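Researcher: Let's continue the batch. This sequence belongs to Fibrillin-1, and it's 975 residues. Same format as the previous ones, please.
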Amino acid sequence: MFCTNSEGSYECSCQSGYALMPDLRACLCFDGFMTSEDMKTCLDVDECDLNSNICLSGNCENPRAPSSVTVIWDTLSAREPRAAQCEIGAHNCDNHATCTNTAGSFKCTCAPGWVGDGLVCKDLDECSNGTHMCNNHADCMNTMGSYRCVCKEGFSGDGFYCSDSDECADNVNLCESGHCLNLPGGYRCECDMGFIPTLDGKACADIDECTFSDICVNGRCRNIPGLFRCECDTGYELDRSGGNCTDVDECADHTFCMNGLCINTPGSYDCQCAPDFQLNPTRVGCVDTRSGSCFIDVRSRGDASESLECSNEIGVGVSKASCCCSLGLGWGVPCESCPPLNSTQYRTLCPGGEGFRPNPITVILEDINECQELPGLCQGGDCINSFGSFECHCTRGYSLNIETRVCEDVNECERLGICGPGQCYNTIGNYTCICPVDYMQINGGNNCMDMRKSYCYRNFYTDNGTCDAELAFNMTKKMCCCSYNIGRAWNKPCEQCPVPSTDEFLHLCGSVRPGYYIDIYTGQVIDIDECREIPGVCENGLCINMVGSFRCECPIGFVYNDKMLVCEDIDECQNGPVCQQNAACLNMPGSYRCECMPGYRFTSSGHRCMDRNECVENPGMCSPGQCIDTVGSYRCLCPNGFKTTSDGSMCIDVDECEKHACGNGTCKNTVGSYNCLCYPGFQNSHNHDCIDIDECGVQRGLCRNGQCLNTLGTFYCVCGDGYELSADGRVCLDINECVVHPGTCGVGACVNLDGSYRCICPAGYYLHEETCEDIDECSQSPDFCLFGTCVNTDGSFTCLCPEGFQVSATGRRCQDFRVNYCFTRFQNGRCLAPKSHNSTKEHCCCTMHGQGWGDPCEICPSKEEGGLGSQSHADLLKTEALYSPVFNEKNTREAYPILCPFSGYTRGPDDNPIDVDECLHEKCVNGQCINTDGSFRCECPMGYRLDSTGVTCEGQFITTEPSLLNTDNQTHDTD
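Model: Same format as before. Here are the structure tokens for Fibrillin-1:
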């Protein structure tokens, strides 16, 4: 403050930022400022810092704006502040300090976590000064006004308590190719052979042994995880250590350089071959690869050249080994004689002997396929190769020429009687028989055979032409009549057999005597083997063929029936009792046998039957039961699980499975007992049957998100709402209603939840019965479209405003933008004292404190209860209804807040209140206008006071006390 002396008085003036008080003796800071500690300057008050909730959900920005509380300091009277500085924010404590009121002043104390004098507080770094409480295994992290503890790597906890984490147990994949060893705050890898820990010890790295010196000499080193492998060069092999390659002595292996001279070299070998031989492509032996013709006839020309003449060519373009190691005697052009068998030249050419040769590629001995390489062999027949040899199979009608190895035609007709009674015609490789009547070609026309078979009789009576003693088997007429002492007649009706030595007999039998026939191939007279040709002759005896005849020798116990030509059994048991007591006679073919009855056995002499003790003779007779001997028999006592056979002779296992002993399982019978193989969902009990498994009680996690119900042999899940059964029926899976039922939420967004879903409705919609429905804003809030008509739309609404009104930026209100007169007074039914400038009705009535507006004048609604002033005013308002169409009919205390929802403020573009600086337009008469938040006030100088209007200072008597009026009718705060 500055004091300036004047004649008879003085004047006070204030520094920048201060305002002179009405008493003209004191200075005070403007609203929004506070005095400094030395009381010399005004400091801006940061309301955003003092009150963090001042803007609620918005962002607070501190302008140099006035506040609603003023601290007044009277420098002349040195009085105390009129209000507590801490409560009104008239202090300059640091944002992180606490203000404490003191007598005539205040004290600033830094909050915990901060250090300083209170006016300036700096963050206390607890981590640096050691005042923190972090665990030894935690890191301290300083924060503004505090600190935070974080457990170190390898430890877990809240930072104040940290315990070691077992990384090895938490992650079984650590230390691959090694073993994980847990350590306090970490872990270490102990690696397997062939691996080495990494620098941080957290993993195992493979050792590349191939980087070592003297590894895999004469080879290539291939590194593999944990090991290495040597791949030796050709001609080398691994030594016993497996780490180096040594030379292979190929000459020690007889499969190398066969038929040649082998010389070993480092990593290889040399093979030296004899003349006319060369090394095969695989270098394992020497072979003669020349090719030429093969001959089986070789003879000297008999001239001075001593050359050979070869003939009978059997192969072309074959090797010398294929020719000479087989049947060839000469080879090549000019012809060379094959080396003699077992000579040195032969052993070199044919090391495998006759029938074998070295393979020209592999030099391995192989069989010579004479049939393929020497096609001149077996002409006219079939050549069949065999291992080391071959065979010529001439077809029927051909015979093999041993010298030429060719199959030549045979003239079968040269053989006497080959066609029997028929005529023979020779063909190439065959012949044909022309057969007489009653004969039939057989074997493709190669034979004539009487095909008729009929009865054969032993006797024929010439006096009446009858026959008897029919044999049991049929035969041809030739076999019946030509065989010795077989038949006298044949066929039915019977025909007498021809008499021997007659032409008929010769024609039929081909011989003059019975018992003979003419061989169809050789034409010789051959004895008929009746024992072979007549299967039924001498049955049960021995048929002995004789030249021109046969005889039957019956064994003991048989007698010969000369009529039926068979040996018949003698039944000895019919000749009276032949066996002792307790024995039975059993006839057998050719004999008989005495057998003891069951339960008896022969004595040592074999002539008498005595009782058998079966239990002693066969100790395991009744196993596993007990054997009890009886006269002539025995019986078995069987244990549980066994039963006796129907004759009681042994104990057999009882098949318990026949009685379905297992119930809910498969029964498997065992000796003396049984086992149950239970079906799925059942288990064995102590009673050897299958009982149900309660899966719901045994298996944890079954039917998650549902209810598990046990049933016989299985279970089923009953899923709760919002869940469905999985494919395997074991758990309940969440149903994604948003996917299954698209459009569930209508226009809203569907968010799937576990077991349910949620609809998130867009603005203008609300959730109703699990769907988004439009909000009828017009019916919900009467404040919407005030002064206009509200029209509801999908998700929103529209305001239709009357003429002179416009929709606000938010679209929620019709703002009156009409500009007209603003009257200060309403008196005697008239609006008086218009203000100097026109304004909107809201600005006039709500901010400028007018009592009337417009032309014609519309009365401003009253903030007072009961309308505008007294009852007489209310009555007057009714008479002026035509001039106030909006409010005169609602002259109640509800009218004012409708027009003036933000009293002392003006409506911003987004309907938010903006403080109006009334002092720009509303000057205080004879006083000073001071704008306040939402209002203003008039301060009168000394000797003046405010009248009832609150905007005019009227002169009065001078008092020693300054007057500061803050009553409701003087401070126009309409909050």
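Researcher: Any comment?
Model: The first helix runs from residue 47 to 50.
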